[in-house]
Structure formats: C-alpha cells, structure tokens
Write a structure and sequence with these properties.
- With 197 residues, the chain is of the alpha+beta class.
- The chain is 16% helix and 33% strand.
- It is globular, with a radius of gyration of 17 Å.
- It starts with a strand and ends in a 5-residue tail after the last strand.
- The mean pLDDT is 96.
C-alpha cells in the first residue's frame, strides 16, 4: 500500500498514550496484517510504503537494505544554496546529551549520504528549493545534513534556528518520489506525489 502521509502524523505510535495516533494505528484497524516498511518523521509528508503481510514486508525490506529503493524529497532550505548540485557525506550518531536530537560525528557515526539538486532560488527572505536523493536512510538525515551545510530546512524544530523555524508553519520536507521493484511482479514501480508547498 502506498499513502500520502500528512505532516504532523507519526508513522508508528509511541509508548505515551498521547502519541497513539499514527499511520500504523489508523490502518491496522482495517488491515490487521499491515506493517511499516520504512518511516517518515512526524513533520515530513509524502509517499510512504506499507506491506500488507509479512512475506511482502520481508521482500521490500531486502530492497531497502540493498539500497535499490530510490527516494526523492523536496524541501525548502534557509538561505541561498550556491552550488547547483552536490553530495553531503557526513556520518550521524546519537546525541546523548540532547535527546531526541542526533548529531554529525566523524568518530562514531554511521555513514550517511545525501545528494541534492537546486530546483529554485527565491528572494527575500532568501530560500532555496532543493530535491534530495539520499542513498542512506538515517533518522533525521536530511534535516541534519541541511543544518550541517548552513541551510536548515524551514520549519524544522530540532535543527533550525528560531528564525528559520518561524518562516514556515510546518517542516518543509516532502517525500515526492519512490522507486522500487514490485515484490510480486518484479516490475519497477516509479511513484510520485506532488509537493504541497
């Protein structure tokens, strides 16, 4: 199953009863065997892939582990990104002193790679619309990498500044594209979901 997850909805329910509402919680009522193949952050919207049973989940998980799944995200970054395209390779690890934030850590971090291409540069206040294509799927990866190059994602509450957070009513990060092999037909699926901002 493919859905367009709204911003402001958890992928999976948390332990706290206040965090019960989630994609999984809503869908499991109608589809008891459904499971998450991957997750999107609470503030991230866009394409999310779910498996209808354990066999399909296993087949799709293998594709994610083999990195044959291609993910595209559109985002609005603070400031003017000067390079038309580039690759950010910065390892990410937990930040024990600042949960739930993560951090760039070259000594102990897990490798993380994000490619980006500038789609549009906007003036006053300077903003840059980019298309991200991450080759790894670390938690908060695009948010951390954007901050690390000096251009946090607008609306980001964890890795932005007070000013960049105030420039948007939500995290401006949307999963616009997903490519994977259908687990039964093996046909290459190319899915897109237009960016709402």
């Amino acid at each position: 199953m493919l859905i367009n997850k709204p911003s402001g909805l958890l992928s999976l329910s948390g332990k706290n009863p206040q965090n019960r509402d989630s994609v999984h919680h809503r869908l499991i009522k109608e589809y008891p065997n459904i499971s998450l193949v991957h997750r999107l952050d609470f503030g991230t919207s866009g394409i999310m892939l779910l498996a209808m049973n354990k066999v399909i989940n296993s087949a799709l998980n293998k594709q994610f582990q083999a990195r044959t799944v291609i993910k595209h995200y559109e985002s609005m970054l603070a400031g003017e990104v000067l390079e038309d395209s580039s690759t950010i390779e910065l390892p990410i690890s937990k930040d024990k002193s600042n949960f739930p934030r993560l951090k760039v850590c070259k000594e102990n971090g897990q490798s993380a790679t994000s490619h980006y291409k500038v789609l549009e540069r906007l003036p006053a206040p300077n903003r840059t619309r980019v298309l991200f294509t991450p080759t790894t799927g670390r938690t908060h990866q695009l948010r951390i990498h954007s901050q690390a190059i000096g251009h946090p994602i607008l609306g980001c509450d964890l890795y932005g500044t007070t000013e960049t957070q105030a420039l948007a009513p939500r995290l401006l990060l949307h999963a616009v594209g997903l490519e994977f092999d259908h687990p039964q037909s093996q046909k290459r699926m190319i899915i897109s979901c237009p960016c709402p901002f």
